[in-house]
Amino acid sequence: MPELPEVEIYRLYLESSSLHQPVEDIEVEDPKLLTTPFATLQEALKGRWFTGTERVGKNLFVFTDGPDHPEQPLILHMHFGMTGDLEYYHSSLDRPKYARIVFHFRNGFNLGFICPRKFERIGLIDDIPTYLKRKKIGKDGLIISLSELDSQIRRKKAFIKPVLMDQSTVAGLGNWIVDEVLFQARVHPEKRTENLTDDDIKRLHDAIQLVLTIAIRHEAQYRDFPIHFLIHVREWDNSPYDDVEAHKFCPRCGTRIAKSEVGGRTTYYCPNDQRL
DNA sequence: TTAGGTGTTTTGAC
DNA sequence: TGTCAAAACACCTA
Fold first, then answer.
1. pLDDT, position A191
2. Spatial CA neighbour of A201 closest among A138, A274, A275, A150
3. Where is the Formamidopyrimidine-DNA glycosylase catalytic domain (predicted)?
4. Which of A61, A170, A172, A266 gives the lowest tally of CB atoms within 10 Å of its CB?
5. Which of the nucleotides in strand C have any atom less than 7 Å away from a protein CB atom?
6. Residues within a 7 A CB radius of strand C
7. Residue A227 belongs to what domain range?
8. Distance between CA A167 and CA A163 in Å, rounded?
9. Domain count, chain A
């Protein structure tokens, strides 16, 4: 799932593959995927090229430049929903499945925006701060300070899990990362924010840094994450473990991992290590 | 008013 | 073939 670490990997991928190549044409299978009218997008980007990127939480921003109106900053925004991905390819024979939006570059290469579930979005924005304010997107998970996280959490009264998934609290955490953060910090997903101690929040802040840093270091390949991570209890398609039962127990204490629903999301936690 | 909670959207994998 | 998963947003309630 494209949460902060995946989007960071996509950002680096786009930077290493797709900069400084004029866009010849843009192909869009379904206009629902756009937050800007197709004609506007086409008109604005044809002949321009990508110059750099910026990421805030799960949002990827791509800066552009061009020969016609170089003084006008045009920024492309990408959100990868639940199944989004990027693939740079040359031959149409190599076109990836579900590449529903494709940027055809003048050099014959293409950047495919892959979106099997159509939860993904692309569009033009004027400037990043305005966009972040309008969408109520908070500080990025990698740079938020302990005091900023503390004040964000303290102003909300709800279970900690949905509060951490709220992009206005801290940007970039989705369902599995929040489960992992709560597990590493030993905080129950249904603990009310009013009942969190200062030490709980300190451990949550540490855990956010730990989980995001390790996920990026392993290029968001879940199977490569440390064995003491909770993520291995999830039934991934390509789990590295042959014994399906073996990873349904807490890697710290051996207690069977509990599965429940919190805030409408499937939630895994250790009932022994994470108590209310 | 608005924070917090719930439902909807969307499609492929199994 | 039906069920499940997910993020963001519309909508509802107190």
1. 93
2. A150
3. 2-120
4. A266
5. 4-9
6. A 1, 3, 57-59, 79, 81-82, 117, 119, 135, 165, 167, 174-176, 264-266
7. 146-269
8. 8
9. 2
Q: Is residue A188 part of a domain?
A: yes
How much is the pLDDT for A239?
Answer: 45
Same domain, A162 and A247: yes
DSSP labels, A132-171: HHHTT---BTTT--HHHHHHHHHT--SBHHHHHHSTTTSB
Give distance CA A148 / C1' C11 (Å): 30
pLDDT tens-digit map of A115-144: 888 889 999 998 899 899 888 899 999 999
Tell me if A141 is assigned to some domain: no
pLDDT at A208 over 70: yes
Percent of chain A with pLDDT over 70: 94
Q: For A157 and C14, how far is CA from C1' in angstroms?
A: 15
Q: What is the CATH number of the domain that holds A172?
A: 1.10.8.50
